[in-house]
Amino acid sequence: MHLTDGVGDNLVEFTYNWEEQVDGVWKGRSIGSILCSAVTMIRTLQQLLATRKDITAFIKKAKSKKPSPKLDVCKNFDNTKLKPVLPDNAPIAIVLFAGGGGIEAGMVEAGIRPVIAVEFDPSKPELSRAIAKTHHHNFSEYGCKVFQLTVQEVAQSGFLGFPRRPDYLHASPVCANFSRAHTAKAGKGIETADDLSAAIAVAEAIRQLQPRVFTLENVPRYQNSQSFSIILDALELEGYSVDYSVVSMDKFGLPQARRRLVLVASRGFRVALPTGAKSCGWYEAIAHLIPTMSDSQLLPKQRQAVEQFLATNEPTPLLIQRVGGRTESKYKPAHLPCNTILRSHFTDHKDCNRSKFADIWLPDGTVKSLSIEGAAILQGFPGWYEFPNETATAGSIIGYSVPPSFATRLFISAQSKLLGVSV
Known about the structure:
The chain folds into three domains: 2-71, no CATH class; 92-279 and 399-418, Vaccinia Virus protein VP39 (Rossmann fold), CATH 3.40.50; 282-385, no CATH class. With 423 residues, it is an alpha/beta fold. The protein has helices at 36-47, 52-64, 102-109, 125-139, 151-156, 180-186, 193-209, 226-237, 282-286, 300-310, 372-378, 391-400, 404-418, and strands at residues 2-8, 11-22, 25-34, 92-96, 113-118, 145-147, 168-171, 213-218, 241-248, 259-266, 318-321, 331-333, 358-361, 367-369. It has 13 helices and 14 strands. It has a seven-stranded mixed beta sheet with strand order 6-5-4-7-8-10-9, with helices on both faces. Keywords: Methyltransferase, Restriction system, S-adenosyl-L-methionine, Transferase. Belongs to the class I-like SAM-binding methyltransferase superfamily. C5-methyltransferase family.
């Protein structure tokens, strides 16, 4: 089973082809004139090992819908540097604790329109405003409105101006008090009144907005918190089916070993977490960018790391952190995913820019400084997302974000259920 494309009158037309046995004879079958907007979903359904029956059912349903005139020309097919064009009837989403919009980037790639994003951290007001500005820059064309308020404040207003019964509601509550770094520094994670009030606000959003699908992402330790229990109780009381697990996102095609708690809940049908994809090494993901990166020099501890590696291994490109690395290897060989990317890699203890945050050592002795663009790819951002020039702001967006490439897989899997396709 495969897709083919042809060009006529400056339009790209896709056809879905397969063979089936009729009276002992194999015969070719096809469905033609497939909308470009449906192609990404079809390819992902194939990756998820959906049956031909499920895929053809999805195609027929997609063909039965009236297309938006904007989708007549598939100008952005297979080109992540061009932003997706969404139809007027695209599913809508609300995002709480939005940050710079990593989850929204994944939603857009999955054909979902973010309409409201809530982003404000009173502990870092200037940074939060800068992040919200970047969010607006990237998603305003989709009609997304950024509320620069806390989630608690919009809950107190009764979610005034929010659409009821949206297709999707997502929350990534602030995770600082549950992160491994905080626990190592403080001796134990301390759940605060702000954490609990944030969870209560999320629970209230579930009750009042009644989304068709609710998703949540956080660090693994969040699942042991009272905050998480508050959200789970709200979902149970409202009749949602819930599936959650700690996933390693390098098992979903992200070139980064990032472990996160992911929850998906739905009502009236069941949405499960997506299945995994082929793992990818960091070098494969950003090799094309390395020649354009700035030259650098290794710090003494980085040189020691290289010598340690070469003592027992053949030379290969190494990605070496300049900061951190207390609990994990400071370097990563080319074939492995990189270490978890954190906001702290890009800023010092005063929240000022770091000029360098990681280096790439090549077997010929060349050393390159990992760029923001490279870090963004390692975090799964599409090429069309535009970052601010300030390293601290751009790095914060990257470090805080749900990896968009994982989000795309999550929401395409959910979309297949909303459209009545079983995968």
